[in-house]
Design goal:
Order of helices and strands: HEEEHEEH
CATH superfamily: HIT-like
Helix content: 25-40%
Number of helices: 3
Radius of gyration: 17 Å
Bound molecules: 2'-deoxyguanosine-5'-monophosphate
CATH class: Alpha Beta
Strand content: 15-25%
Largest sheet: 5 strands, antiparallel
Structural class: alpha+beta
Distance between the termini: 30 Å
Length: 141
C-alpha cells in the first residue's frame, strides 16, 4: 500500500492487471518491464508491498537475493547480453515511479543499449569517509 490503495505491482501480482510473467514463488514475482531500457529488461518484485528497500522484511529481502542471480542468468541467456545492470530506486527524487520495491535487471549491449551511468569523478575525502563509515557501523551495531 502507498496511501492510494494497492500498488500497480500488487495488482499485477494478484492477476488483476496483465504482465509478461517470467517467475513466481511464495515471496517473489518477476515480469518484463513495460518500458524496457533494453531487450529483456525485467523487474523482480517482492510480493510484500514495502515502498522502499529499507522497509522490506529480512524474509522478503532474502527471497529476492536468492532469485536475482538466477533470473539475471536467464535474462542474459535469452537476450544474448553478457553484461547487465541491477538497479533499484527508492523515493521519487531517486527516480522511483512505482512505490513498491522492485529491482530492474537491465541487459547492457555493446551498441550502448541499456542503462547509462553518470559516474562521479569526485574522490571521497578521507576524513569525511572515516567519519561516515564509523557512524554507519555504529547504527548497524
Ligand atoms: P522505477 O522508476 O524504478 O520506479 O521503475 C518503474 C518501472 O516499472 C518502469 O521502468 C516502468 C515499469 N512499469 C510501470 N508500470 C508498469 C506496468 O503496469 N507493467 C509493467 N510490466 N511495468 C510497469
Amino acid at each position: 500500500m502507498n496511501g492510494d490503495g494497492p500498488s500497480i505491482f500488487t495488482r499485477i501480482i494478484n492477476g488483476e492487471l496483465p504482465c509478461h510473467k517470467v517467475y513466481e514463488d511464495d515471496l517473489v514475482f518477476s515480469f518484463l518491464d513495460v518500458n524496457p531500457m533494453s531487450t529483456g529488461h525485467t523487474l523482480v518484485v517482492p510480493k510484500e508491498p514495502a515502498v522502499t528497500l529499507d522497509a522490506l522484511s529480512e524474509e522478503s529481502a532474502a527471497a529476492i537475493g536468492r532469485v536475482l542471480p538466477i533470473i539475471s542468468k536467464a535474462v542474459l541467456e535469452v537476450s544474448g547480453a553478457t553484461e547487465f545492470n541491477v538497479l533499484q530506486n527508492n523515493g521519487a527524487n531517486a527516480y522511483q515511479s512505482v512505490f513498491h520495491v522492485h529491482f530492474h535487471i537491465i541487459p547492457k549491449f555493446k551498441d550502448g543499449g541499456g542503462l547509462s551511468w553518470p559516474m562521479s569523478t569526485m574522490p571521497l575525502d578521507n576524513e569525511e569517509g572515516s567519519q561516515i563509515a564509523a557512524k554507519i557501523r555504529a547504527v548497524l551495531g
